[in-house]
From TrEMBL:
UniProt xrefs under Pfam families: AIG1
Chain spans, region Disordered: 200-228
Domain of life: Eukaryota
Keywords assigned by UniProt, alphabetized: GTP-binding, Nucleotide-binding
Protease in keyword set: no
Compositionally biased residues, Basic and acidic residues: 201-219
Similarity remark: Belongs to the TRAFAC class TrmE-Era-EngA-EngB-Septin-like GTPase superfamily. AIG1/Toc34/Toc159-like paraseptin GTPase family. IAN subfamily.
All residue ranges annotated as the AIG1-type G domain in the record: 1-198
Gene Ontology MF term list: GTP binding
Name of this protein: AIG1-type G domain-containing protein
Length: 300
């Protein structure tokens, strides 16, 4: 059997390291009974499970912090591009999902592109705390996460990392991974796929900025060479025009520019999230159509 390369992604505290240990059948990655960050750099470990060699890469928890953005995120990207994984395990904990969890998932999809969904399996941890069948639990999920699971072919699995000796849960996950690899014709997620997504994101961002700049600006620098700017005060029309100092005008203009940039940045972020949601729906429609076509072909 072909060696499998598996990368664990998810929010900090989701149980990525513990899941890696369960999957490998040994204590390869450091864990701690808390939500504090334990993994600060990507690490890889190998093992043979059910007569198949597997390579598992543990990654730092995805979060919104300056340290993550400047150091850890780049480490994850480099590891993905270096190892070319057969599958991404998106690790989530069972329980109530907050906006933070949803944002984390969206940021991962935004970073690696729509193509990553073809190589993704959602792995829920803390299966021992699940009080209902996984099928019923999935029906109660956040709508956006539910859509992601749907477009990924409903590929989900549940781990109880407190029972690492349960070989059946590992064997079942490996079967799902091998089925996915077969479905993808043994192809891996590659650096070229990542670069293609980043190029698309840059183009969309540049187009967005260009569109925002298409507004009348004839009067913006009309008085650049004047020493003062004249402003008409409605309450002092009878007294004539009131002159304000150019420096004061520049301060006001600077604040307006800052506000404009903030709005543009927020619009770009909203557009990126909207793009992900639209692509999610499009992919879901495509997947459904493809499945229907296959069923029709079988019947005929």
């Amino acid at each position: 059997m072909e060696e499998l390369t598996i990368i664990l992604l998810g929010k900090q505290g989701a149980g990525k390291s513990a899941s890696g240990n369960t999957l490998l059948g040994k204590h390869a990655f450091h864990t701690a009974p808390s939500s504090e960050r334990v993994t600060r750099a990507c690490s890889m470990s190998m093992s043979t499970v059910d007569k198949q060699k597997i390579k598992v890469i543990d990654t730092p928890g995805w979060c919104d912090s300056s340290q993550f953005e400047t150091e850890m995120k780049q480490d994850i990207i480099e590891s993905v591009n270096m190892y070319n994984p057969h599958v991404f395990l998106l690790v989530l904990t069972t329980g109530r999902f907050t906006n933070e969890e949803i944002t984390t998932v969206m940021n991962i999809l935004k970073e690696f592109g729509d193509e990553v969904i073809k190589y993704m399996i959602v792995l829920f941890t803390k299966g021992d705390e699940l009080e209902e069948p996984i099928e019923d639990y999935l029906k109660e999920l956040h709508s956006e996460l539910e859509q992601i699971i749907k477009i990924s072919g409903g590929r989900v699995h549940v781990f109880n990392n407190r029972n690492e000796k349960d070989c059946q849960q590992t064997s079942l996950l490996l079967k799902k991974i091998n089925d996915l690899v077969k479905e993808n014709k043994n192809k891996c997620y590659t650096e070229s796929m990542y670069n293609k997504n980043k190029k698309q994101c840059r183009n969309e961002a540049e187009n967005s900025v260009a569109e925002n700049r298409k507004s009348p600006a004839e009067d913006e620098n009309r008085d650049d060479d004047d020493d003062q700017v004249s402003i008409c005060d409605a309450d002092q029309k009878e007294k004539g025009q009131t002159m304000i100092d150019r420096k004061e005008f520049e301060k006001v203009k600077e604040k307006v520019d800052e506000l404009t940039k903030t709005i543009q940045d927020q619009l770009m972020a909203d557009m990126n999230n909207l793009r992900i949601r639209l692509n999610t729906v499009q992919f879901l429609v495509f997947t459904k159509a493809h499945h229907t076509q296959k069923e029709f072909t079988k019947k005929n």
